[in-house]
Design a protein that fits this description.
Blueprint (H helix, E strand, L loop, with lengths): L1 E3 L7 E7 L13 E7 L4 H14 L18 H14 L2 H18 L1
Amino acid sequence: MFNLRSSNRFARYSWFVRLVAPRIAESDLSGIVRLEVAESVGLIEAIRLADLTALTLNRFIPGRSRDPRSPQNLLPIGALEDHLRRQLGHPLLIRRHIESLIAEEVHNG
């Protein structure tokens, strides 16, 4: 646990958690995430949250076949990305629409 203070950002406590051990061909830093909480929660609460995240985050790690960004891209984040992608609509239709808007702008100059 360490404290970060900056004039440009809010003061916060930060810590690292290893989600999984790296595979043979991966960097020693693979599977490590940095987490933060506002300094205003206090040191005791920050330590409690750090312990809690170390105990629970591994429950949300998708298999690498499901998400190549695993383990760092946790299941709730992947689910949110899927939901937002569905809300956007079909990617080819979106691309065609954007291309037509650009072509119209270029043509109208």
